[in-house]
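Notes to self, Histidine-containing phosphotransfer protein:
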Amino acid sequence: MHSSSLRFFLSLNLSLLLFCGASFFSSAMAGLTALEALTEQLYDFIQSMEDDGIVDYHFKDCYNMKEANGPFLFIELIPTYISDSETTLEEMTAELDQPLVKFKHLEQLCTRLKGGTACIGACRVATSCGELRRAAIAKNKDNCLLRLEMIKGDFSILRNRLEAFLELERRIVTNDYQGC
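result:
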């Protein structure tokens, strides 16, 4: 785990001690409201995901769109992305389990997953999707199976980080609406 990731997770654990109405929680954050501290932690978390190569700058750009689209944008977008991606991964797995793989269909599934993934800036998964698509174009089932396992591993890491991100985002939205 990179130091930025460790720093974020330690910071997140400290923030879990905050309750609505707490104005200060450490000398490093003295003077910040709970909402400001949570927001700072969220941006540190985004930076840690960038540092780890999980997401690129598009993720932060997408997150910042919530100011124009309402505070619940990411709380609604991320679970939908995760669910849709899991469904697509299941379809890819089913396709590769067939004795005669329909490589064109597999290419389409790769394009679908890569499109949604690239839109939120999840660059590692998007890159892995491109590699699977190239293996499908080459009609190389063994390489497709290997690349699919890589996507599943990358997606698992991404999903875990997005779920932690959402936990923090929900706390921010809750604090914002409670006026803490």
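- The radius of gyration is 19 Å.
- The longest helix spans residues 141-178.
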